[in-house]
Design brief:
By secondary structure, the chain is an alpha+beta fold. Helices cover 38% and strands 12% of the residues. The longest helix is centred in the middle third of the chain and has 19 residues, at 95-113. Residues 255-272 have a biased composition (Basic and acidic residues).
Length: 301
């Protein structure tokens, strides 16, 4: 193997082309983005929709977006910070919350487009992947309506590492159960075993309904009450025990399906007005300078 000396001379820097700003900032994977937004030419100006899932330090964000020349446009959005409206007040970024947020954005966009009655989604949540064949094409819904085809979107995970059981797939499953047509398999869901290529849907269902949290709470209640008090302080404060969680999540799902519309914006009236300080005259400015000089001179003495 030969070693070549890297020469970064004037000619190199004259021809250097910087990468896109969001690549330099480490925010966008343009290789993935290109494939997510490129639309077939025979579909003309039809938008290609994406289910954008982002997880912050405090919440889960789900958006239905499509790309245009001047940037992405958001068709619908849901935040896990909205879940307290539906009865889920704590653990707003766990797997169960990600599923509920995906369910919320899915029902919301279908309601907005008038497809919510044609595509009710999977009302009996069991963790199974739902799909059907129609006219030689696979749709990831239970049944295709006669007049309207399902709303198709593609999962956009951003820079997240797509490990098995990741919360982004919880949001995907929630949106799919809401009635959206999102291509996916069970290979990244909790309960999938890569060695024998088997899928246990019951394991996934338990994650969706936060059964694992309830089991851990009950285990700590028996073995270590002090750890329960420290680890699940917010749950205890809200009066939620390990036996209540599954039923609570079911009620949250029902409430989301009843009314997925966003909350009305609060109108804020601003009473106070900010008044800029009046501009000083030349005489005032000179007097101020003289005052500062006199103060500095008195300090030196």
């Amino acid at each position: 193997m030969t070693f070549v000396k890297v020469t970064k001379n004037k000619a190199y820097f004259k021809r250097f082309q910087v990468k896109y700003r969001r690549r330099r900032e480490g925010k966008t994977d343009y290789r993935a983005r290109k494939r997510l937004i490129t639309q077939d030419k025979n579909k003309y100006n039809s938008p290609k929709y994406r289910l954008v899932v982002r997880i912050t330090n405090k919440q889960v964000i789900c958006q239905i977006a499509y790309a245009e020349i001047d940037g992405d446009k958001i068709l619908a959005a849901a935040y896990s910070s909205e879940l307290p409206r539906y009865g889920w007040t704590i653990g707003l970024k766990n797997y169960s919350a990600a599923y509920a947020t995906g369910l919320l954005v899915g029902r919301r966009v279908l309601q907005k487009l008038g497809l919510d009655e044609d595509y009710e989604g999977n009302t009996e949540v069991n963790g199974e992947v739902v799909k059907t064949e129609s006219n030689g094409r696979t749709y990831f819904v239970e049944e295709v309506a006669d007049e309207k085809r399902p709303f198709r979107a593609y999962l956009d995970v951003g820079l997240r590492t797509t490990t098995t059981g990741h919360r982004v797939f919880g949001a995907l499953k929630g949106a799919a159960d809401a009635g959206l047509d999102i291509p996916h398999t069970e290979k990244r869901f909790p309960g999938y075993n890569r060695d024998d290529k088997s899928y246990d849907a019951e394991v996934h269902r338990d994650r969706i309904f936060a059964v694992h949290i309830g089991d851990h709470m009950k285990e700590l209640e028996e073995d270590d009450p002090d750890m329960l008090a420290s680890h699940y302080a917010k749950y205890t404060e809200a009066g939620i025990s390990g036996d209540d969680i599954e039923e609570l999540v079911e009620k949250v799902h029902e409430a989301i399906r009843e009314d997925p519309s966003p909350a009305a914006k609060k109108e804020v009236s601003i009473d106070k007005k900010y008044k800029k300080p009046a501009k000083r005259s030349l005489q005032q400015r000179k007097a101020r300078v003289a005052q500062k000089k006199a103060y500095a001179a008195s300090k030196d003495e």
